[in-house]
């Protein structure tokens, strides 16, 4: 059901960013087109080269191309191009920006321009995940019509155990597949 679907994948700064590589592989195997937007902080966890190689497209992270050509990456065109916008992992910082309409980077500006369904898969430590401000941000995102793919429970990078793990790539793929499956087949 994902064949020829255009998936915009936002990758935020989180130790779980490594799972974006597996998600891209699954999406490509399902015959989706994948365009990655990587936040600056995410590039500390996974390289643009890895994501570009897997997605078969250049990874975008800035509005203006750094080569001095004056070429810019149009957030409006990106938002119109996509059939679905998936943010995985979504950091607490990006979730807060989405919820409050802040757009200081390509990812958040594209989010505000997107006309397609948005799926947010958070990954953060359990105290951040459970914080009332974060929970309010999730509530706001849902009220805007976004889909939250709940974080899993387990051991976190901090060594703590609780909710905050990025949903597994297979689970995210299943959510997208269900979304695009016509109701008569469900």
UniProtKB/TrEMBL annotation:
Sequence ranges assigned to domain Flavoprotein in this UniProt record: 5-179
Recorded superkingdom: Bacteria
PANTHER family: HOMO-OLIGOMERIC FLAVIN CONTAINING CYS DECARBOXYLASE FAMILY (PTHR14359), PHOSPHOPANTOTHENOYLCYSTEINE DECARBOXYLASE (PTHR14359:SF6)
Annotated protein name in UniProt: Flavoprotein domain-containing protein
């Amino acid at each position: 059901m994902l064949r020829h679907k255009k998936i915009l994948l936002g990758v935020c700064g989180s130790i779980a960013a490594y799972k974006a590589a597996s998600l891209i592989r699954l999406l490509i195997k399902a015959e989706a087109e994948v365009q990655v937007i990587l936040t600056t902080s995410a590039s500390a966890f996974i390289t643009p080269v890895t994501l570009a190689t897997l997605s078969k497209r250049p990874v975008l992270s800035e509005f203006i191309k750094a080569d001095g050509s004056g070429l810019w990456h149009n957030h409006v065109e990106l938002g119109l191009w996509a059939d679905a916008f998936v943010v995985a992992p979504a950091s607490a910082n990006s979730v807060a920006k989405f919820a409050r309409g802040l757009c200081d980077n390509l990812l958040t500006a594209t989010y505000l321009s997107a006309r397609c369904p948005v799926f947010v898969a958070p990954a953060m430590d359990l105290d951040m995940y459970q914080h009332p401000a974060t929970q309010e941000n999730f509530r706001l995102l849902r009220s805007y019509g976004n889909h939250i793919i709940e974080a899993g429970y387990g051991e976190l990078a901090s060594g703590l155990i609780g909710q905050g793990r990025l949903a597994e790539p297979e689970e995210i793929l299943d959510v997208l597949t269900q979304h695009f499956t016509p109701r008569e087949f469900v």
